[in-house]
Write a structure and sequence with these properties.
Blueprint: H1 6-11, H2 20-28, E1 37-40, H3 47-56, H4 75-99, E2 104-105, E3 108-109, E4 123-124, H5 126-132, E5 144-145, H6 149-153, H7 158-161, E6 168-172, H8 179-188, E7 194-198, H9 206-209, H10 211-227
Parallel strand pairs: 1-6, 3-4, 6-7
Antiparallel strand pairs: 2-5
Helix pairs in contact: 3-4
Organism: Colletotrichum nymphaeae SA-01
Protein name: Alpha/beta hydrolase
Signal peptide: 1-20
Length: 230
């Protein structure tokens, strides 16, 4: 996912997505154009988080239900779902290389996946649907190439952040995606010029779409960049 073109592509984007922050930490570890870096409530790419993301699609969240009380699939179920998804991706790539046919499946599906069978959708379940669902009514093409899972799951931000020497700001919290992974990544960053803002009152998606939260984050990031040494 990372290349010499990543930063140029990123600065041209007008949308927000949770993989951008951690990938920017990775890019900052090797691209000298980056003077300082910040990541807001990201999808920190390691195997545990990838499996956690797949398992979260099996949780049937309903209005008024405490998310913390919901039961996730077991580690064994999560690993099996992960391996099944990798196999589907390998099969899809083999078909493409043989015939040129691209296998597509829905990217999002409001129905929670079965913890034993999984789902053919890339991001199943009510949690991700609450964010992506409205996009399906605004011209968003709800599909993804199944073989792309090989590239997706083959990428990790773990190695890059362990080499990060630029001033680094991480904004996250217990109610954001896999908080444990965010803490692991932050702790592995070797630079002493780093800051962690941990807010348990704000949820993952609030960081993206609630104006006062966005404004506060922008202020924190601007202040952090302002004190960075060029």
């Amino acid at each position: 996912m990372c290349s010499t073109h990543t930063l140029g592509f990123t600065v041209a984007l007008t949308a927000v997505e949770c993989q951008g922050g951690p990938e920017c930490l990775d890019v900052a570890s090797y691209d000298d154009r980056v003077v300082a870096v910040a990541s807001v409530t990201g999808y920190y790419r390691d195997r545990e988080t990838d499996i956690w993301m797949i398992c979260s699609g099996c949780v049937n969240v309903e209005p008024g239900v405490d998310v913390g009380s919901l039961k996730m699939p077991t580690p064994e179920q999560g690993e099996a779902l992960y391996q099944a998804r990798i196999q589907r991706a390998k099969d899809a790539k083999a078909l493409y290389e043989k015939t040129g046919e691209v296998t597509y499946q829905p990217l999002v599906d409001p129905k929670a996946a079965d913890p034993d069978v999984g789902s053919l959708a890339g991001l199943p379940g009510p949690v991700t649907w609450s964010w992506y669902g409205p996009w399906t009514m605004k011209g968003f093409e709800n599909r993804y190439a199944v073989m792309s899972d090989l590239d997706h799951f083959g990428y990790s931000t773990v190695a890059g952040v362990t080499k990060l020497t630029k001033p680094t700001l991480v904004i996250h919290g217990d109610n954001c995606m896999n908080a444990a992974a965010a803490k692991r990544h932050y702790e592995s960053i070797p630079t002493k010029e780093k800051k962690l803002i941990w807010d348990n009152e704000i949820s993952h998606f609030q960081h993206y779409e609630q104006p006062d939260v966005v404004d506060r984050n922008v202020g924190e990031i601007a202040a952090w960049f302002g004190q960075a040494k060029v």
